[in-house]
Specification:
The structure holds two protein chains of two kinds. Chain A is mainly α. Chain A contains twelve helices and four strands; from the N terminus they run E-E-H-E-H-E-H-H-H-H-H-H-H-H-H-H. The mean pLDDT of chain A is 90. The longest helix of chain B has 18 residues. The model of chain B has no long low-confidence stretch (mean pLDDT 85). Classes of the chains: A mainly alpha, B alpha/beta. Chain A: It holds the Pfam family MlaE.
């Protein structure tokens, strides 16, 4: 290996370069050039066996800034320096610096506008779903039974395992926590009230909605989003298939129909889980548990859960499909939209759940 | 036969297979220093796989790859010598493979930062600036994100990144695919100029007959799981292989030949 890049400057302000002026061999040379006290009058390259564009750039920059003449170049070096000189234009490399205040303000503004647009878009999307639903009702032959059945399987049947396990564990947790607290008043038996009412009214459906949003809402956004990227959605339109009917409607129908079923199933499994814990740790036998459950849980609790479930399902499917349809540009967008679909779905579900709670208590279903 | 010092890449007895499907078997290839070699072959003949085995992204089942005399396969994949060789090449993937979260300038700076952390930001920005201009991008392309660029500009940005470390060896996977003819011709010219001024050895996979005629010194033909012929286009035309004849003497091949002749330049 020959020498690393180096230079010396003499009394006549002649800068003599030596060694290989290549990126790998530059070392501290760029910093030392910056630190030169006197600008050189002449740059002598006759001792430089090899030079690459970075070396040529340093030489060019020095000669540009100091007006020094360049000497002793061989043909290759001369050509390289010439080449980088040609490429030396007023480029912008970094985006203009924006003050933090402006940036924060513009981000807040942008987020507000985006939120508003999303809301309007979701309402519009809901309308479009209703229109295509109505047109399918009027032309039942356009109903895509196979697609709906397929979504039944993906959204419902495939989710039974995970939702069952989750609900079972939640039932156990509620029973255990409730028993610990109620024991302080000697009221362990009210654990049964707690389990029955909270799972049927709230947790069964709510936890199922969260699970379905994470499992299926995200999948909807990702599937439809990647179909949009691959121009499949556009291809459908040109063939005359309405993407609303072929892609969105089956998913919405499947989720709306399945959410009550899944929510009911989740509540039952949670009650079973709670019952097992009551049996083991509170010595309440299953027969008593069921008997007591029938006495303390009013029928309206079941209706509360079942009324909410299809609405939640519609929101989850809509958020997923809406975000999927918004994808354009690149694959990164699919990821962002998928996240947005899940976040929006869960957020809207919880907001609506609060409204439902107020509503049901005002009509006396308490 | 060229001397050992004149060989940039040597591939010997390469075998690649995916499950039962054998892509290469007993493939030999020599790329000379300073030449632009075009690699052609029908779809599925493993042009990209060959490139990936040379640059170490695909582990071959058998065979040797040496780059600048350093073995690059098997056990030698992670030796310091092989690592040093890796700094001496640049790769342009088919769609540019730009990092989507970074701007064009930051993309160009990635290899520089990785290998030369001592460089200060100002010099990095200057280097990125002139590389961007050299690659034929407009002067304001630096702060843009890859998603804001057209296909042709993405390829140029990819080229700027491939050239970041001042490589001696450049791998290009279908650089002109998907470009309009004007953009493709401009890209050809750019490659030709850069390889001459920077003294690059270029390994160029292409389907573009115009590119072959315009800038390639030699062409390697992949068929029957190996390189069946390497040579200048006239040398290849003299061969009696059906695929080669079909390829260069088909309607598109003849058109490309004629336009190269009309341009009066051909390879110089």
């Amino acid at each position: 290996m020959s020498d690393a890049a180096d230079f010396t400057i003499d009394d006549q302000r002649v800068l003599r370069l030596s060694g290989e002026w290549t990126l790998a061999r530059l070392g501290e040379v760029p910093r030392r050039i910056e630190a030169l006290d006197t600008p050189p009058a002449r740059i002598d390259l006759s001792d430089v066996p090899r030079i690459d564009t970075v070396g040529a750039w340093l030489v060019h920059r020095l000669s540009r800034d100091s007006g020094a003449a360049i000497d002793g170049t061989n043909a290759d070096a001369a050509q390289l320096i010439d080449q980088v000189a040609k490429a030396d234009q007023a480029t912008t490399v970094r985006a203009e610096h924006v003050s933090p205040t402006t940036r924060i303000l513009s981000q807040v503004g942008l987020a507000t506008v985006t939120a508003g647009q999303t809301l309007v878009g979701l309402v519009g999307f809901f309308g479009a779903i209703l229109i295509s639903f109505w047109s399918v009702v009027r032309h039942p032959r356009r109903f895509r039974g196979n697609a709906v059945t397929r979504q039944f399987e993906v959204v419902g049947v495939d989710a039974l395992g995970i939702i069952g396990l989750m609900s079972f564990l939640i039932g156990i947790v509620i029973a255990q926590q409730g028993a610990v607290q109620l024991r302080q008043f000697g009221a362990e038996v009210f654990t049964i009230n707690l389990i029955g009412r909270i799972t049927l009214r709230e947790l069964g459906v709510l936890m199922t909605a969260i699970m379905v949003a994470g499992r299926s809402g995200s999948a909807f956004a990702a599937q439809i989003g990647s179909m949009k990227l691959a121009e499949e959605v556009d291809a459908m339109r040109t063939i005359g298939i309405a993407p609303m009917e072929a892609l969105v409607l089956p998913r919405v129908i499947a989720t709306v129909v399945l959410m009550p079923l899944l929510g009911f199933y989740a509540s039952l499994v949670a009650i079973v889980g709670g019952g097992i814990l009551c049996w083991i740790s509170l010595d309440i036998p299953p027969a008593t548990y069921i008997q007591r459950m029938r006495e303390v849980v009013p029928m309206t609790d079941l209706w509360v859960g079942l009324v909410k479930a299809p609405v939640f399902g519609a929101i989850i499917a809509m958020a997923g499909c809406f975000q999927g349809m918004q994808v354009q540009g690149n694959a990164e967008e699919v990821g962002l939209r998928t996240t947005a679909a899940v976040v929006q779905a869960i957020f809207l579900v919880i907001v609506l759940d609060a409204f439902f709670a107020v509503f049901f208590s005002s009509i006396g279903w308490i | 036969m060229a001397g050992e010092d004149d060989i940039a890449i040597r591939v010997e007895g390469l075998k690649n297979a995916f499950g039962d499907q054998v892509v290469h078997e007993n493939l030999d290839l020599e790329v000379r220093r300073g030449e632009i070699i075009g690699v052609v072959g029908g779809s599925g003949t493993g042009k990209s796989v060959l490139m990936r085995s040379i640059i170490g992204l695909q582990r071959p089942e058998a065979g040797e790859v040496t780059v600048f005399g350093v073995p690059m396969t098997g056990e030698s994949l992670h030796t310091p010598e092989a690592e040093a060789i890796r700094r001496r090449w640049g790769v342009l993937f088919q769609n540019g493979a730009l990092f989507s979260t970074l701007t064009v300038a930051e993309n160009v700076e990635v290899p520089l930062r990785e290998y030369y952390p001592a460089l200060d930001q100002e010099l990095l920005d200057e280097i990125a600036g002139y590389k961007i201009v050299m690659s034929g991008l407009p002067v304001d392309a630096g702060p843009k994100f890859p998603s804001e660029l057209s296909g042709g500009m993405r390829k140029r940005a990819g080229l700027a990144r491939a050239l970041a470390l001042d490589p001696e060896l450049l791998f290009l996977d279908e650089p002109t695919a998907g470009l309009d003819p004007i953009g493709a011709a401009a890209f050809d010219e750019l490659l030709h100029d850069l390889s001459r001024t920077l003294g690059l050895t270029v390994f160029l996979i292409t389907h573009d007959l115009d590119t072959l005629y315009a800038i390639c010194d030699r062409v390697a033909v992949l068929a029957d799981r190996r390189v069946i012929a390497v040579g200048t286009i006239p040398e290849l035309l003299a061969l009696d292989h059906p695929w080669i004849q079909e390829y260069f003497n088909g309607p598109r091949g003849r058109n490309a030949a004629q336009s190269a002749e009309r341009a009066g330049t051909g390879r110089d």
